[in-house]
Amino acid sequence: MLVHSRTGRRAVWAVFAVLFVPLFALPLLVILTASFATHWSGALPSGPTTAHYTAAVRGESLRALTTSLVTAVTASLVALTVGTWAALAGAALGRKGRKVLDALFMLPVAVPSVVVGLAVLVAFSQPPVLLNGTRWIVLLAHTVLVTAFAHQSVSVAIRRLDPMYEQAAASLGARPSYVLFRVRLPLLLPSLTAAAGLCFALSMGELSATMMLYPPDWVPLPVLVFTSTDRGSLFTGSALAVVLMTATLLVLLAVSRIRTRASFR
C-alpha cells in the first residue's frame, strides 16, 4: 500500500468498505439470496428452495449455458489470434501507423454495443455473405466486440518487452519464425492469458448486441436471464445469473492459474 501510516491505511480501508459494500457486495448478495427464494417478505426474499437451481442446470437453461461457453471460448480464441497478430504487426510500424491501427481496433468499443450489433445485422443480412439467423452472426459480433481488448493488452505488453532476448536469439542465427514462436510469444504468454480471460468474461456477459442477433437455436445465457426477469420470474433469473457468474469465475480461475505458471516461467 502507498499509505504508510496506520491511521491512513485504516481510513483507506474504511472508504473502500463504504463504497464496496453498498455498490457491489449487497447487490450480489441480494441476487444470491433471491436465487434460493420463492417470494419476497418485506425488504428481503424468503421461502428457501433449490428448485430454481434444479431448473437452471437442465433443459433450456443448460443449453443456454453451453451456448454462452462455446460463444465466449470461440470469440476469445479468434479475438486473441487476430489481436495478437495485429499487435505484432503494429509493433513494426511507425508511431503514426500504430495510432491508426489502435484507433481502428478501438472503434467497436468506442460506440455502444447495440450499434455494433445493428451494423453486423445490416452487413450480413444480404448475399453474398448471409449470416442472419445463424449462430455465426452471434460469434462474429462477440469477436468484434472483444478483439479490441485483446489487441490493446498485447500491444502494451509488446512495448514493455526487453528486445535483448530477441536480439540475442537473432545474433545466434535463429530464424524470424523461431524468434517469434520460441522467444517472443513465450515472453508474452502472461499477457496473452490475461487478454484471453478478459475477452471471455466480456463475451459471457454481452447482452445488447446479442439481443439483436441471436437465432432461436442459439440463445446465450444472458438472454435467458433477461427474458426470465422480463417475464417477472425474478427468482429464476437470479439463479441463472448466479450460474452465469459461477461458470465465468471458474474459467477465469483456470486462466489465472495458467497465467501464474506462465509468469513463473
Quick overview of this protein structure:
The chain is an all-alpha fold and 265 residues long. Helix content is 78%, strand content 2%. It has eleven helices and two strands, in the order αββαααααααααα.
- Largest β-sheet summary: 2 strands, antiparallel
Number of domains: 2
User: What is the CATH topology assignment of the largest domain?
Assistant: MetI-like fold
CATH architecture of the largest domain: Orthogonal Bundle
Structure description:
The chain has 265 residues and is an all-alpha fold. Helices cover 78% and strands 2% of the residues. It folds into 2 domains: 6-46, no CATH class; 58-264, MetI-like fold (Orthogonal Bundle), CATH 1.10.3720. It has helices spanning 6-34, 51-56, 59-91, 95-110, 113-123, 135-160, 164-171, 176-205, 208-213, 221-230, 234-264, and strands spanning 39-41, 44-46. Strands 1-2 form a two-stranded antiparallel sheet. A hairpin with a 2-residue loop joins strand 1 and strand 2 (44-46). Helix 7 runs antiparallel to helix 8 and helix 8 packs antiparallel against helix 11 (234-264). The mean pLDDT is 85.
Topology of this structure?
Elements: H1 6-34, E1 39-41, E2 44-46, H2 51-56, H3 59-91, H4 95-110, H5 113-123, H6 135-160, H7 164-171, H8 176-205, H9 208-213, H10 221-230, H11 234-264
Antiparallel strand pairs: 1-2
Helix pairs in contact: 3-4, 3-6, 3-8, 3-10, 4-6, 5-6, 6-8, 7-8, 8-11, 10-11
